[in-house]
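Quick review question:
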């Protein structure tokens, strides 16, 4: 009888620990999603403010340019479209989000300091890193070659285009990438929760 009680105690303790870890995991995911939502909203506002200051002709010209423009993050392998995003593993979504945030380490310094964007990106990157470690659970890495990837250079400063176009591209790409990260983290968070419906 005593052995049964000991076994029951171990099972209950294990269950309690597991539930605690699940709640902590959800808290971390919630925090990451809230942070990237804030960055996405900030990016949208900055883009709106920039466009409002443009002359009608400038706005017209720039709107034709961006769909054909290249963003620094375009070189990062990422799920494209809803189907591919939903088929991707949580680890893949986290890893892609990490790389997208990392790609803004240098360019974010040109987005303006009043909003402390660089610090917010650094905090989010750290949080995603913690989530990745939790998902790896003993594995060394998602992709051995990825750890050897060089740091991103300040791609947007090397462009040979006017200041107006450069600013437009910078803001447009930032907004696009924050939207991607928000989508990936939201799907990853849903997958790690008890919610079975994670459709976009």
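Suggested answer, residue by residue:
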């Amino acid at each position: 009888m005593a052995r049964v009680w000991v076994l029951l105690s171990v099972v209950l303790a294990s269950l309690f620990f597991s539930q605690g870890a699940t709640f902590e995991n959800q808290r971390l995911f919630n925090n990451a999603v809230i942070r990237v939502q804030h960055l996405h909203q900030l990016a949208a506002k900055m883009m709106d403010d920039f466009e409002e200051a443009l002359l009608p002709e400038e706005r017209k010209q720039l709107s034709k340019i961006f769909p054909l423009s290249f963003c620094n993050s375009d070189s990062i392998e990422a799920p494209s479209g809803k189907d591919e995003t939903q088929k991707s593993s949580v680890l893949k979504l986290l890893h892609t989000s990490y790389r997208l945030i990392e790609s803004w380490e240098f360019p974010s310094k040109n987005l303006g300091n009043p909003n402390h964007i660089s610090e917010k990106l650094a905090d989010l990157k750290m949080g995603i890193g913690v989530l990745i470690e939790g998902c790896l659970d003993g594995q060394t890495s998602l992709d051995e070659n990825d750890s050897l990837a060089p740091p991103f250079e300040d791609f947007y400063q090397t462009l040979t285009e006017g200041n107006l176009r450069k600013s437009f591209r910078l803001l447009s790409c930032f907004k696009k990438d924050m939207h991607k990260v928000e989508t990936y983290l939201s799907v990853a968070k849903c997958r790690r929760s008890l919610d079975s419906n994670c459709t976009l």
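Why it works: The chain has one domain: 25-192. Confidence is low (pLDDT under 50) at residues 4-19, 147-151.
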